[in-house]
Structures are given as C-alpha cells and as structure tokens.
Amino acid sequence: MDMFTSAAAAPPPTRRRARPLHVALLGCVLALLAALSLSAPPRASAATLREVTNFGSNPSNLRMHLYVPDNVKPQPAVLVAVHYCTGSGPAFYSGTEFARLADRYGFIVVYPSATRSGQCFDVSSPQALRRDGGSDPVGIRSMVEYVRANNGADPDRTFVTGASSGAMMTNVLLGNYPDVFRAGAAFSGVPHSCFATTDGSGWNSACANGQIIRSPQEWGDLVRGAHPGYGGPRPRMQVWHGTNDTTLRYPNFQEEIKQWTNVHGVGQTPSMTDSPQSGWTRTRYGGTGGQAPVEAVSVQGAGHSLPMSGMAERAVAFMGLDV
Question: Which UniProt keywords apply (predicted)?
C-alpha cells in the first residue's frame, strides 16, 4: 500500500470534491509510521522537539516545531522538513531520519504542521504560488526568520525537503523564495504551480494524474513568475519519484526535471547517469558532481512511499548539510 500520501487515490471525478483528502490516506500513513518506528532506533541525544509559537506572520495558522541537536554548530544551517497530508511536524520528526542526521551534522530542523482539514499544505491557491502572497509559504518563511534571529543560524545555509504534499511545498518554496533557500529535495512531488486551481479546491486531478505536460520554458516561467524581477542565483533541486506512484503519478517526475533545468538554464540531456543503488537511476544536469544544479533519482517499482531508508542521508549530502 502506498505511504506518505498527499491525496487519495483517484476516485471517480464526481466523488472526489466531496470526499476529504485525508480519509483514504489515513491507513497508509499509519502503516508507514508503524513500519518506520520499528526500523528507526531511538536516538541517544537529550535534545527534544519543542513547539514554537508567535514566530511571526502566519496567515494560515501553521504550527511550528523545532529540533536543535545537542551538538548544534555555531551559525548552524537550517533544514525545513515538510510533512505529507494527514501528517504533522512531530510525525515527520519521528518517522524520518532528518533529526538523527541533525544529531550527526549539527544543523537545526524546522518542522511545520498544516492545520487545515486533511493536514495538507496549500500549494494550489493563487496566494500560495507567489512571493509573499499569503497562505502557508509566508508562515514557513516566518519560521526560518525566527530561527535565524533566535538561534544564530547562517542566513546563507537554509534548505527545504518534504514528502508528497511537503514535496509540492518544497517546489513552491524554492520558486517563491530563491533568496531564502539554497537547495531542496522533493520526494514524490509535482512542479511549482502544477497543482494550481482557481475554484478554491486544493485538489488538481490533472496534475496528480500526470496529465499536465508543459515545455521546459513554460514550467520555468511559472517559477520566475512567482518572484518577478528576481535576478539572483537559484536554489539547486533534487527530485525523487517512484515509477509505480499512483497518487502523484510518475510523469510529474520528468516535468519537475524540465522545470528546474530550465530555471537553471541547463540542458535536458543528463551530464551524468548512474545507479547508486539497485533499482535507482540517478541523473544529474548542469554538472556531474554531488551538488549539480539539478539531480533526479527514479526509484524502480516504488509507489508513493518516499523517502525510504537511506534516502534522507543522500538528500542531506546533496544539500551540503553533511559538512
């Protein structure tokens, strides 16, 4: 069964709008968390996850949890780790490896929590898809600013990762705030603005089903349109997708590649292709090293179940948090 789900498997169109997104996903997520709790040994660290309130502008009433490891570095890097639908910041903390990796490398992790019905992040409204337009991206940026002000974080080393709904938000944040985030890693997501709707719905069937196909230029223009006039450097992007994903279908993987290669002005032909692990096909664009402008990993046979064991560590390395 698929896990880390962002939306229900596709029911008939006449039923989807009336059905809460979280209903069909709850069993998947519970199964995932149970499996992860068995596979992830408890950390020896005395550091704990704590909730932060009154962290700044927060138009959609997100919640914020913060993990600061015992061995936090001076002027630490910050990783924003964004959960899937039906999830929460604490669930993503306990169900993924990012906090354990923070213990190892001394960076801080911010875990936002969505509070709307279904606990999905807003990646579809016009407000969410432009810089400082409102909704969830504004609240998440406020969390970053809070950590910079209160924990002495390095303003040049802020990163974001997420799964499913959180992966979609990763794409959105990198587009809206290229001056805030230096790199991101999206597990089972869709391109920036792919999920856009105009009817108030948070669900875009065509995008979820991999039916929105655009040229690299068209995808890139959507990112550039999120922050008009910006001419600075763009964040590097790593995307992951399972070939058997039936929730946010596999064609979205190639559309993300098209978008971010165009944003970086690099070609569609990989500079390097390899298989770092059985069943994985990794391509790099615009460079062959471990921090190429765009890196993509296709996971053969995987469903909506990322990140799996070991993937978080590779994402941390791509972002440069392992130094």
Answer: Hydrolase, Signal
What distance in Å separates the CA atoms of residue 140 and residue 173, rounded to the nearest whole number? 9
Q: How far is Cα 81 from Cα 88, in angstroms, rounded to an integer?
A: 10
- Which residues contact residue 55 at a Cβ distance below 8 angstroms, ignoring those fewer than 6 apart? 64, 142, 143, 146
pLDDT at 18 over 70: no
Tell me phi and psi for residue 316, to 5 degrees.
-60, -40
Token code pair at residue 188? 């089972």
Nearest-10 crossing angle of helices 135-151, 165-176: 70
**For 39, how many CA atoms within 13 A lie in the half-sphere containing its CB?**
12
Question: Could you tell me the residue ranges of all domains in the chain?
Answer: 20-319
The angle formed by the CA atoms of residues 22, 23 and 27, to the nearest 5 degrees, is 95
Catalytic machinery residues: 164
Helix (H) or strand (E) holding 64: strand 63-67
How does pLDDT run across 279-319, given as a tens digit for each residue?
A: 999 999 999 999 999 999 999 999 999 999 999 999 999 99
How far, CA to CA in Å, does 5 sit from each of 32, 131, 154, 176? 10, 26, 32, 24
What does pTM read for this prediction?
0.88
| CA–CA dist 236, 246 (Å, integer) | 27
